[in-house]
Structure formats: C-alpha cells, structure tokens
Amino acid sequence: MDPGARPRGRRGVTAAVSRSGTRVERLPLSRFTTLGVGGEAEVWFVTSHDALAEAMERPYRILGGGSNLVIADAGVPERVLRLSGPLAERDLTPDPLLSTPARVVTGWVGGGVPLPGLVRQLQKLGLSGLEGTVGIPAQVGGAVWMNAGTRYGEMFDGLHTIELVTPEGTRQVTPDDLPWGYRQSGIPRNHVVSRVRLALTVSTPDAVLAKMDFADQARRGQPKMKTPGCAFKNPGGVSAGQLIDEAGLKGTRIGNALIAPEHANFIVNLGGATAADVHALLDTVRARVKVPLELEYELWPGQAEP
Ligand SMILES: Cc1cc2nc3c(=O)[nH]c(=O)nc-3n(C[C@H](O)[C@H](O)[C@H](O)COP(=O)(O)OP(=O)(O)OC[C@H]3O[C@@H](n4cnc5c(N)ncnc54)[C@H](O)[C@@H]3O)c2cc1C
C-alpha cells in the first residue's frame, strides 16, 4: 500500500485513499475476471488523469473487463489500474463540428465503459460501426487495445480518436497513426487507453439489430459458464477446438476447471477453480495435441509494465 495513503474502510479490507484522492484496495483479482480466478493485488480505482499519473509512479498493470486474462493464484505484485468514475462514463452526443447527416462523431467514451452495454445503446440509437463486437465481454479500453472483434466487425471499425496515457503524459491519436491489424492495435503495453471518440454511420435500430443478430448467432454453442474465452489461436487456419476434440480432451477436468463439453477450445470454471487447475489443463492440451498451439489468453504475471 502506498506509504502516503490513509487507511479506511470495512473491517478486514485494506482500503486507503491516495494523494490524488484515489481509492486503493487490496482485493482478489478473481472478482474482476470472467474466469473468476486470480489472487490479490493493490487495485487503484482511477477516476481522472491526475489519478492515472499518480498510479503510474510505480510499476502497474491495466485491468479492463478481465475477459482475456488468467491471473495467478498468488496475484501480481504491481499496482492494478481500474478505470472508474468519469473514465467509465460515455458521452454519445454528436459533435456538431465533425458530424454529418450520414456520420456521427461522438463525445468521449471512457476506457472503463463495458462494451456490451455500449453496443446495445448504439443499436437503440441506430448508429452502426461496433455491432460486430456484440457478445465480447470487454471494456472499451481493453477491446481497443486488442482490437477485439469477430468476422462481422472489430473495434477499429468505429474509432475516431484514441486518448493514450503514459507516465510521460497524455496524447491523442487516430487509427491512421497506429499500425493496427487483426486483433492488435499497435498500442504499446504500458499505454492506457483512457478514452475514445467513436465515428459511426447513421443507420436505423432495426438494421443495426439485424447485423448484431447475425454476429450473435456465431456464438451459439459457446459455453455460458465462467471462462476467459477461447484458449488457443487457430493454428494455420485449422480449428484449435477441433484439434483438442480429436485428441479426446472434451470434458477433461482438473480440480474445478473443465474443458467445455460444448466447445473444446473453452476452459470453464466449475466454481472454485484455481489458476493452477487452468494451467494444468493447458499443459495437458499442449502435451496431447501434436500441433504447436499458441495461447489466446494473457497470463498474469507475465509481462509487467515498466
Ligand atoms: C465469453 C467470451 C467471448 C469472447 N469473444 C471474443 C471475440 O469474439 N472476439 C475477441 O476479439 N475477443 C473475445 N474474447 C476475449 C476478450 O473479450 C477480448 O480479448 C477483449 O479485448 C479483452 O478486453 P478486456 O477489457 O476484458 O481486457 P482484459 O482482459 O482486462 O485485459 C486484456 C489486455 O488488455 C489490456 N487492457 C485492458 N484495458 C486496457 C486499457 N484501458 N488500456 C490499455 N490496455 C488495456 C490489459 O492490460 C491486458 O493486457 C472473449 C472473451 C470471453 C470471456
């Protein structure tokens, strides 16, 4: 805990308020991941650029929706930054100077905004651009950082400006400034996607909904349990799930982690699974599938921010 921080909060919970007024709490990261796994770390609930600047004075990691992470049972030693307050709010008002009858450029959308709710809201407004990302349980910042998407569309289909914060300061870039591509933004690892402005095509709620339904249908057959999504990338265009299935591993259970019977490329938490259980299953898959498989998830700790 930051030496300057003042302790406060509920019994048994180590909470403090930092110099910039940021709430800092030692918490199990399992609370913030879709897999429901991960040990403790010092979580900084950053609500402003001043708070980000202070939090970045020491080694840090950025936590989004936790939907692509397997975090160790021992947690991580770095500060974990969670975008909150105004950095998790959205202003979808069309910018009168940049918008046209055919295209809306929005106000700022915080990196901490949950993507599924945003996609639903845009559909209701009849604004098209991000509907291909329907069903991705990310936050906006994490989805931009990875250029999350499906074959029906990706985050960079709807971006106008991206605000990046680093220990050196804040700058704004456009997609043209970045070497983005398939599931990558080209944004370096220690850069926080703090806010974005969206550029969307004016459509109708029904037309956007129809596209969303199409993208959503592709998710049928995916397990509904706690999971960090697909475990492995498809090697050379071959389905990783099919290879795992052919190795006879569907339904394999270690501890409370299971290779989903519905889809072999998903590992699910049956309740109380540990990161060790998940790692043991990943090792089993790698040992039994003859083709080298590259992991889709990010493992923490792995790479720490400087
Ligand atoms: C059920 C399920 C379905 C999924 N389907 C898809 C899919 O169809 N397509 C797809 O692409 N992905 C999919 N995923 C994977 C995942 O949702 C994406 O990889 C997503 O981009 C992760 O975003 P996040 O906010 O959860 O990031 P996290 O998992 O929290 O973090 C992932 C990485 O992003 C970084 N990061 C997070 N927030 C920020 C930020 N504000 N600024 C900078 N870096 C940040 C983290 O430091 C970390 O390196 C799925 C996952 C699940 C659980």
Automatic annotation (TrEMBL):
Q: What is this enzyme's EC? A: 1.3.1.98
What does it catalyze?
UDP-N-acetyl-alpha-D-muramate + NADP(+) = UDP-N-acetyl-3-O-(1-carboxyvinyl)-alpha-D-glucosamine + NADPH + H(+)
Q: Which cofactor does it need?
A: FAD
Its subcellular locations are: Cytoplasm
Q: Which residues form the active site?
A: 183, 230
Q: What is its main location?
A: cytoplasm
Q: A GO term (biological process) for this protein?
A: cell division
According to the record, the segments passing through the membrane are none
Its pathway is:
Cell wall biogenesis; peptidoglycan biosynthesis
Domain spans labelled FAD-binding PCMH-type: 36-203
Q: Do you know which Pfam families this protein is assigned to?
A: FAD_binding_4, MurB_C
Q: Which UniProt keywords are given for this protein, alphabetically ordered? A: Cell cycle, Cell division, Cell shape, Cell wall biogenesis/degradation, Cytoplasm, FAD, Flavoprotein, NADP, Oxidoreductase, Peptidoglycan synthesis
Q: Which GO terms describe its cellular component?
A: cytosol
Recorded GO molecular functions are: FAD binding; UDP-N-acetylmuramate dehydrogenase activity
Family (UniProt): Belongs to the MurB family.
* Role according to the record: Cell wall formation.
List the PANTHER family: UDP-N-ACETYLENOLPYRUVOYLGLUCOSAMINE REDUCTASE
* Name listed for the protein in its UniProt record: UDP-N-acetylenolpyruvoylglucosamine reductase
Gene source species: Deinococcus arboris
Q: Which gene encodes it?
A: murB
